[in-house]
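Long-time lurker. I teach an intro course on protein structure, and each term I like to show students one example going from raw sequence to a predicted 3D structure in token notation. This year I'd like something fresh instead of my usual example. Would anyone be willing to generate the tokens for the chain below so I can use it in lecture? Attribution to the forum is fine with me.
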Amino acid sequence: MKSRMRATAPVRCDSNKSGYAVHYAGNGNTEALKTFHKCWICETSTHWVDECKKLAAMSYSQRMEKIKDYHACFCCLKKAGKSHRMANCKRRKQCTEMINGKQCTYFHHPLLHKPQESVTGSVGITLNESAKAILPIVQTKMVGPKGREYTGNVLFDSGAEISLVSLSVAENLNLKAIGLPTISEEIEEIQEGIDLQRLKLEHSDVKRGSGPLDLLIGVDLGQMHSGEMRQSGNLVARHSPLGWVVFGSCQGQSTYQKSVLHVKVSEPINMTDFWSTESMGVQSQNCQCEPTKFSKLEQEEGKIISESCRKVGKQWLVPYPWCKDPYLLPDNKVQVQRTLQTTEKRLLKNPVYAEAYNNQIREMGHCLNDYWMKGPDLLNNLVGVLLRFRQYEMAACGDISKMYHRVLIPEIDQHVHRFLWRDLDIERPPDVYIKTVLTFGDKPAPAMAQTALLKTAEEGAVKYPEAAQMLKYNTYMDEICISTPSATEMTEVTNGIDKKLWQQGLDWDTELPEEDQSAWNQLFKEMEHLNNVTFERCLTPQMAKGRPILCIFSDASEDAFGACAYLRWSLTNDDEFQVRFVTAKSRVAPLKQLTIPRLELQAAVLAARLGRTIMEELTLELEKVIYLTDSTITLSWIKSQARSYKPFFSARIGEIQNLTDPVQWFHVPGEFNVADEVSRGISVNRLKDRWKQGPNFLSLPEDKWPLSKSEPDQVSDFEKRNLKAKCSKHGEVKRTGNSLTSAELEESETYWIREAQKNIVNRFENGDYKSLSPFVRDGIIRVGGRLKADFMSFETTHLVLLPQKHQVFLLITRHYHSMGHSGVACTAAKVRKKYWIIGVQRLAKSIKYKCVTCRKMDHKVETQRMANLPKERMAPYTPPFYYTSCDYFGPVTVKVGRNKTTKHYGIVFTCLNTRAVHLDLALACSSMEFIQVLRRFFAMRGQPAYILSDNGSQFVGAQKELQLMLKGWNQQELQEFCAGRGTEWKFTTPAAPHQNGCAESLVKSCKIALKRAIGDQVLTPMELYIYLSAGHWKSR
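-- Reply from a regular --
Happy to contribute to a lecture. Here you go:
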């Protein structure tokens, strides 16, 4: 029966006599439930608001309007108030509806979840005519492929691109087609009032029936629309292959009915199942405080099901976990009887009736599944079941026969599964049946069946431990897939079933009973050929010894990224190895284009998840697990701190570091990375060899693998030298724990120098370095020369000669460059203190150019091109300070008494043409004080023709006061004072000090010089004035 079948009779049995407790969300008081859960829509106490059939039948907009008008809570649908809001509602929980595979993030009741909009296209037309339009319809006999006949109405539609058939006709004729429930409304016969004599036809010539439309012939069957045509006014007759067809309009009938012939609805596709299947084995884990598989609600529901499960004879009895009171279920026997009668009519009329009941029927707003808890998902991981199935050589698979029918249900649960039947004998009243076993399709049925299965395994764990492990870990629903190292162990696993057969007294040639036939599994050694490509099912070779190595490759391209895993076994024969393909996963690159390094990091995450799944699901003991990638950037990310990167990188690096150890990651050259096939695709021929067996180096000893933890260029400074010293000193270091001494490091450095000079021994003997006067001392080739001073050391006068192209040569130069990140000349000079490297200047330049730190520090930003210099900066034949710029600086603290200090200011005057400098001291920052300083400047340097200053208040005030002062002088005195020349005063734009850059740069120099000269001393005003007037420190 269908899983959503409603209760067929009210519950009459006494729950106190059933021997178990009914679990539902209530306090056991039915009257209290009726009082506190009143439906405010129907104004009744027979059901709750969320069970109201009127609310369920409303559209989304109508529900929202009702809820808002009543001021109901969006969580529980009850009346809201000051003390009951959505934020503090006790039933506040996240909506359980799914949107594109993800759970809705809003906290509202599921009935208030906005459904995804359907794209609907329809065609409608309105005609205001008194005449009746007649469609081209003919009644004819239709014959199916097996000779079945059916008489129905056929419509010729020249506006349809395809032909359509109704569902009832397709079923009657046993056609394989997608039928429509209805094509149009019911049609009428041609009435006698229509005059067919004008078309030279009789009513008997036109075969047109009434009732539903059964077949629509479109233009895809064009030959059916041909034939002789007769016309009289708007009435047309055509002699089609099926007979005469009359269509058009006439005055014989005045009634008119509007019809919609076809409505196209495009429902959004739910991708939840697709994505859950696609991410098997590599899905990301949800962040949880505790590493638990089930939520708290699922744990509580699972505990209820497990504790109520009990043994009845040889079977398990599991009550349904009620979350609502079953006594609230209404009596729907009348509706079921009507459904039975309708079903009987359709079955008698249509022998091949496909569906017994429509899905998701709601009777009086109640759905039986809503009264039950769902329970936890107790199914095993399908990827793990398949991996364990491939683990060993001997394999077996089987099926638990009638798994759901092996689980009994108690009396009260049986009565809510009532149904009526009378074997199509409509003359007698129907019989009432009940389901006594678990029903497939009920919401908690999977959890109840799995609970019974696990209870069976626990019960027989002591006597049959292997069979118990098989039921716990190697089953998926009712399917069993196991593998063992040998046939003996396979026999031990099946001992329990074998013993049961012997107890029944069955012989070898006796056909097994139906319930035992599915218990036996057919053994096989390898999977069937698929497109001429086969893979070994068994992951363990026959001659394997020791523990295998799990190798996981990852790679990415612009189109996709992925990972693949292999098990590498050692065989009993020395130096022989065998590789087995385990599994692989790939992902298409996102539509938003990512860089290759980011995709490589995504592939590394996929590899880490794949490794976690394999290690969790396989029972093999692994020697080690290594991860291989050809991206050095990804390796450096994995080996660094995740928190130092942006969220995109830190989240993925953190996940990789949680799932793996950074020391497990190695670099492999791109030509050996077999995961390249995952990201770029592979042909069938290559699929047979490299993809199946992995790269060739996996069949070699580990010391011959082309792996490295990092690129050689990434070894900094003298790391190799230190490593050499540690290796030679390993025994002592391990014993004493002391650090390396300078003598040990010097000895290691000497070793690497001798190794590097082996490449130039021949050139030295041939005299290629004759100009350098080389000689050998202590096995090291050194440069000669004429520096023989006693105060200079031997290492300074005779440098070590090193070849131009050697790794030591690069490491030494990089080491000295990293000490300060200086320029090319400075780096070369540091190297030349001890080593003579040919072409060191060129190498230092290359290292500085590639140095990331230097490129950041010396980075030149885009700047605007400076304008031409003003004429004041290039005035020829003018005395100093003819064009002058001035600015304040300070304040400077001076002492005016024994214990009293004050602040004075310095003023800098500079010639814009010669850049001469004049310094003076101002006692305050007022305009009058500046005028006094300006008079002293005029007296010492002469009166300038042009003065430039900042737009400071003291300068503006000085200009105004100077103008007022000059206005008070008479013309003769003004001429004598200015010597016939006026002084033009110009101010810079406010908040634009760069326009007076000449004075600003000198202010900086004056501050630095003054700070270095007097330090923290506090001078008197006179001492400060004399110091500013001194000319020796103003020289630049």
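Some talking points for your students: The chain has six domains: 37-115, 132-253, 296-355+370-517, 544-714, 719-857, 872-1029. DSSP finds 34 helices and 34 strands in the chain.
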